[in-house]
Amino acid sequence: MRKVQLTETVLRDANQSLMATRLPYADYEDILPVMDQTGYYSIECWGGATFDSCLRYLHEDPWERLRKLRKNLPNNKLQMLLRGQNLLGYKHYHDDVVEKFIELSIKNGIDVIRIFDALNDFRNLETALNATMKYATKNTIASGCISYTQSPVHTVDKYIQMCKELKQMGFQTICLKDMAGTMTPYEAEHLIKGIKDAVGDIPLILHTHSTTGMAYMTLTKAIESGIDVIDTATSCFSGGTSQPATETMFYALQQYGIETGLKEDLINQVNDYFKPIKQKYVDNGMINPKSLATDAQALVYKVPGGMLSNMIANLTDMHAMDKFDAALAEIPAVRKDMGYPPLVTPLSQMVGNQAVTNVLLGERYKQISKEVKNYIKGEYGIAPAPVAKELQEKVLGAGGKPVDCRIEDQKRTGVEFQEAAEALGDLARSEEDVMSYICYPDQTLKFLKDRKAQEENEKLQKKQEEQEKKESQAELAKKAAAQEKISKWQEEQEKAYQAEQEAAKKEAKAREDEQKALLEREEKLRKQREEELEAVERLKKEQRLEHAIQSVVTSDMNEIMAVIQRAKQEDAQNELQDELAKQVQQVQQLAGEKDLELVSEIPSDVEEKEKLQVSEDISYMQDEISEDETTESEVL
User: Fold this and answer.
1) One-character DSSP codes across 494-526
2) Terminal-residue alpha carbon distance, the chain
3) What does the alpha-carbon distance between residue 381 and residue 378 come to, in Å, rounded to a whole number?
4) How far apart are alpha carbons 451 and 158 in whole angstroms?
5) CB count, 10 Å around CB of 411?
6) Is the peptide bond before 74 cis (omega within 30 degrees of 0)?
């Protein structure tokens, strides 16, 4: 299965194009472990304008940023963009400076060095290429880069010849860098097929921008024509002046049946992470809506994304955005006057700034920047086409000619290192600090002074914190001693209170025992009195009982005798009645029933009277006996 790989640009060119490289490392540090597992061909994260932006705007050490990236992306190839003899600045540096810079870049973690010259003057790539191969590790790749543009002097045949030259120089891959996004699908097809035929199997890379709306069509045609690697940006940071979307190209290639090596879930996770970050910079104005739009007029202006975002930022800072359209229209004229240089850093900034200056001053070339003058002198290399005579004479004078050789030849004096070290003094702590100063002296000096001041402030703050800590500890010790004294006093007071409480308890107990003993004595005396009273009462009761018994006995004997007497009388009466009954029976039998009844009534009456008298006598005796029993019970 055919394979096309993708380089992710969100950490460098995507944010450089949309927001002038103002994305701080802290914003994306947390997503790096995910990006490390995603399967990119490489991650572009350093070089270009990042160096300047770190020092000038973000207050970051660019070397420290690179070391952090290397630590958090151990499984990915880290890629940088290098401007050949310009390194990352806006002038040519001596060969020994270029060589040292590349040595430090590889040492701090860079794998892929994409090297280009703004004028495609490949003499300016030789030192950088040689240094890359000299300090290369097993992961190092030297990538020769062509600055793509269109002009009467830039043809397909010329680009094919350039690619052959880069291969002969020893570059391991070749990149076509379409900075303005002006390469059309037609051009991509013919150019890539021609290059592939000319250079064989050396990997070919296409870098373009979405500025003009051509990018997706151009990439599709490039893929069909045999491209090996394409540059893309996670979708929320894609489009506009940035690159085409990573996810979009992944799905398109997948449908073509082309392998990418990317993990679908992870590329979507990366995009989800960057969405709120992008929105933050849209909301605060850092990302201008103009950078997000498609501008077909860029096919005329040939303005790359990074140049456009920088131009917008500069005009905004100068409160001159009303001059934007006029400045944009001035760019093609300035470019033509300067011999059709490709609009890539540093020439894109030089052309753009000169166009803005012409518009703001209302006169062409009334003021010419130092960098444009050096360009016309030939210090940046040979212009693709002759510079306009009027402009050349303004800089070089009548009959003046630019140099026609590489001005850095044989310049390995080491003076820059010496001068930088002397200028920095104790501000420089490493070769990297010195190198930063050589590239950006003003920005680096300010950054290192700020760093030193910050560290001194931190030391002072730390010292103050330590002093405050000591004072705090002393105060705490003092408070602790006072607290201990108070605690001891409280403890003594507590002990005294407890002793008083204990004594009070003992005293209360003694009073309680004494009261208890007194009560017991009183109770004992009360019981003794009660016992004595009971004895007296018993004696009295015994005496009364004895008397009562005597009375009862005497009375009972009389009663008993009376009862016996009455019983005898009753027996005699009963015998009498029986005798009378017998007589009555005899009379009845003799006298008849009527006479007998008369006779019977008389004895019955007598009998009833007798019975009533006996009953009364028995009741009286029962009452007497009951009274005697009650009296005896009371006595007992």
Assistant:
1) HHHHHHHHHHHHHHHHHHHHHHHHHHHHHHHHH
2) 133
3) 5
4) 48
5) 16
6) no
What type of residue is 295? D
- Gyration radius of the chain over CA positions: 64
pLDDT at 80: 98
282: which residues sit within 8 A by CB, 6+ positions away?
289
Quote the Cα angle for 192-198-200, to 5°: 90
- For residue 609, is it left (φ>0), alpha (ψ between -120 and 50) or beta? alpha
Going from the C-alpha of 492 to that of each of 484, 485, 489, 499, 502, the distances in angstroms are: 12, 10, 5, 10, 15
CA distance 369 to 386: 19
Cβ neighbors of 218 (< 8 A, separation 6 or more) are 178, 183, 184, 185, 187, 188, 206, 208
In whole angstroms, what is the distance from residue 494 CA to residue 489 CA?
Answer: 8
Pick from 60-64, 314-318, 562-566, 620-624: least confident: 620-624
Record the pTM.
0.71
Check: CB of residue 249 under 8 Å from CB of residue 230: yes
Encode pLDDT of 440-485 as tens digits: 999 999 999 999 999 889 888 888 888 888 888 888 888 888 888 8
User: Over the stretch 328-349, which tens digit does the pLDDT of each residue have?
Assistant: 889 999 999 999 998 887 788 8
> What pLDDT sits at residue 166?
97
Least Cα distance to 21 among 43, 44, 51 occurs for 51
Confidence of residue 613 (pLDDT cuts 50, 70, 90): low
Please, are residues 253 and 223 in contact by the beta-carbon 8 Å criterion?
Answer: yes
Alpha-carbon distance of 8 to 442, in angstroms, equals: 32
> What pLDDT was estimated at residue 97?
93
